[in-house]
Design goal:
Elements lengths: L1 E5 H11 L14 E7 L2 E7 L3 E7 L2 E4 L2 E5 H9 L5 E7 L2 E5 L4 E5 L18 E5 H12 L13 E7 L2 E7 L3 E8 L3 E3 L4 E6 H14 L3 E6 L3 E6 L2 E6 L18 E6 H11 L8 E6 L5 E8 L3 E8 L1 E3 L4 E5 H9 L5 E6 L6 E4 L6 E5 L5
Antiparallel strand pairs: 1-5, 1-7, 2-3, 2-6, 3-4, 4-18, 7-8, 8-9, 10-14, 10-16, 11-12, 11-15, 12-13, 13-27, 16-17, 17-18, 19-23, 19-25, 20-21, 20-24, 21-22, 25-26, 26-27
Helix pairs in contact: 1-2, 3-4, 5-6
Length: 370
Amino acid sequence: MKLIILKTNLVEGLNAVEGSVGSDTNLPILKNVFLGTEGNNIIITSTNLELAIKRIVSGKIIEAGAATVPFQVLSSIIKNLNTERVTLEEKGNNLTIITDNYEASVLAQDPKDFPIIPGIQNKKNSIKTGVEPLKEALSNVIVAAQFSDIRPEISGVLVNLSGGKITLVATDSFRLAEVTINFNQTQSSLKEAAVIIPLKTGTEVLRILNAEKEGNAEIFIDQNQVLFEIGNNYVISRLVDGKFPDYQAIVPRETKNEISFNREEMMNAVKLAKVFAGRANDVSLVVGDNGKFLEVCSSDASLGENRYRLPVKLRGSKFKISFNWRYLMDGLKIYKGEEIVLGMNDPDRAVVLKNPNEPFLLYIAMPIKS
């Protein structure tokens, strides 16, 4: 194998696959990156056996072939080169890296020992959407996801197709985020499906979406795998085995008490309150006596206390409620509009954050029990 590649293209390719480089000491080849050719394409691939990422990079193929070398070694060398033109050549058991003023030889392993990346058997089942709407939807829900050994079914993002819409949901059992994408923003050969994408996969897909910024993304769903095709990037992953919780059961259909307030001002209040938040990261929201203002309070015995007052509109009865400030802030961040409505029925039950002008978004947080 002999390739000529621009450093910029090679760095972008290595960055794209970095998230799926393995760390298993029992199978050290997973720490490698695979370099090879497929037809007229140069490919870079990595895998940890649960997740694999392949990137097609531009360059000139002098001689077809393949090589696999430690990712960290190759990445460190390439990122520190000071010339753009890079030649990669397989020579025996080594990969030689050559520029105008530099040469290195990295010990390589037999590319036949690199794990075979599985493919999607049935490519008829797919969802096609723009990079931007998928990126926005995924970034809005993934904040509520958290890895769990005990409950693997919540260690990811639910993708549910039903009733002419695609719904993305994530929860860590303390908060939940839901985003709905109408079919008029997508093309889908599927009418109904429900799969759970692992959190790690969702994070890597989001990272690639942020790098691509435009174009289309296509999602192929198989019985136990999912494939994302985003530009020149291919992310294939196992699906989470299990059934996502029936979260609709905890979503309040109506709320007796609601306050509406300015989102930016509330975010500023929470930023100040977190300085004095205790070990539970708790901040309290207290509706004032006249129902026209809200106090955002926090205190710590070793630091002190603070109190921020902001105007609100109240519907229903006054209340006092406490939250983990991170959960409250994450919910405020996913919205774009100025006005936020916080609705609740009971201080110990789920609270809804919503924006009347963004009906496709829903964020629910559990309060800290007093």
